[in-house]
Amino acid sequence: MSTEGGALAGVRVLDLSRVLAGPLCTQMLADHGAEVLKVEPPGGDETRGWGPPFVDPDTSAYFTGLNRNKRNVVLDLHSELGREAIRRLLRESDVLVENFKAGTLAKWGFDDEFLAEHCPRLIHARMTGFGVDGPMGGAPGYDAVLQAYGGLMSINGERDGGPLRVGVPIVDMVTGIFAFSGILLALNERHSSGRGQLVDCSLLDTAVALLHPHTATWFADGKVPFRSGSAHPTIAPYDTFDCSGGPFFLAVGNDRQFRNLMDVLGQPDLADDPRFATNAGRVVQRDALRSILEPIVRAWDREELGRALLARGVPAGPVHDIGETLTDPQVLHRDMVVKLEGYTGVGIPVKLQRTPGSVRTPPHGPGADTAEVLRELGFSEEQIGRLADGS
After folding, report:
1. What is the pLDDT of residue 391?
2. Is 328 an annotated catalytic residue?
């Protein structure tokens, strides 16, 4: 198996994961040159059916966003031949990524003792909902459940409304990114020790890690944070406002930026108002400040106001919808939309100067590479046929 270069060229990854966190992690590894082999059960990764929309009868749009640059094998791990294929793949791999329920690998014969004896250099990245031990150890967890359990929903939503799920599967996605980082740490450490290790990531840990600055605030004063909509709990003005042409976001992080904002809005005296002269005062008086700013901001065209504020060093901009974002000239300039024949996807956010990542292949169909990979592993044509039949 070969790639066309990249910072991780030569790293072999066995992807036994499904749904989101694991596949996102392995796609990031693949984008940067790792040789990733995705193994699906005979029924397929369930996200293949998460539609409409579908890009073909076997593949949802959801699946395509997480599984490019990978070869694809279908194996039944309940069969001895399927488990033998995994044994051979593990011995050839640098990294194993999986998100099975606790005990599943051991049930199939791939417990910690097996990996330590037969694959001492293997980096095993495990992703779970709550971890494998402790009071909630082994419990299943989807992103939304951990947004709720881990506190994220409690701080998301309007001040006078109920808790809301964040509009993207943020816990799953960041868990995948954390696992990607952990794998890179372990690969680096292996250069000196020659040994692999476990990279243990849970959705619960990720949810808690995402709670800043609310955790720091709670540690400091013991007060349970409140929902504040789009506003920031400790910075003002930092919120969405109505403009001509659509919603607009102001993110004024310091007193200098506030003074520049007031200059652009034609209200320089407000920067000297004792109520608003410091961020601490503006946070205490946020409602009074907002009532003053709302009619002033509403009179501006949002594109014009954005240009004027950015020119003065004030972070601000229009609230784009997804279509506006994916056709924005700066997004396109940054290569954050990529196209291959029959495939369009989000670009690579980590851009390396000498060894950039690349999008080389669209997601493969279920089992598209099964026969080829099994031949490389030394299976006979008769065994390949039996594996293909699920026997």
Report:
1. 55
2. no
Residue 308's contacts (CB-CB under 8 Å, 6 or more residues apart) are 264
Distance of CA 372 to the CA centre of its chain: 31
Q: Could you tell me how many residues make up the chain?
A: 391
- For 106, phi and psi rounded to 5 degrees? -60, -40
The Cα 259–Cα 264 span in angstroms is: 9
C-alpha 6/C-alpha 357 separation (Å) is 6
Its pTM surpasses 0.90? yes
H helix runs in the chain, sequence order = 21-31, 61-64, 80-92, 104-107, 112-118, 143-149, 170-193, 203-209, 214-221, 255-264, 279-284, 286-298, 302-311, 322-326, 329-333, 370-376, 381-389
Query: Which stretches of the chain drop beneath a pLDDT of 50?
Result: 1-3
Give the model confidence (pLDDT) of 127-154 as tens digits: 999 999 999 999 989 999 999 999 999 9
* pLDDT more than 70, % of the chain: 98
Q: Find out whether 1 and 89 touch, Cβ atoms under 8 Å.
A: no
Give the domains, in start order, of the chain with CATH numbers.
12-210+335-389 (3.40.50.10540), 238-319 (3.30.1540.10)
> Are the C-beta atoms of residues 232 and 290 closer than 8 Å to each other?
no
How confident is the model over 232-262, as pLDDT tens digits?
988 999 999 999 999 999 999 999 999 999 9
Q: Which pLDDT belongs to residue 292?
A: 97
> Who contacts 211 (Cβ-Cβ below 8 Å, separation ≥6)?
150, 151, 152, 155
H or E element at residue 315: none
User: Does an H or E element contain 237, and which?
Assistant: none
CA angle 155/146/53 to nearest 5° reads: 100
pLDDT of residue 390: 60
- Whether 33 contacts 355, CB under 8 Å: yes
Pick the catalytic residue: 172, 205, 239, 369? 172
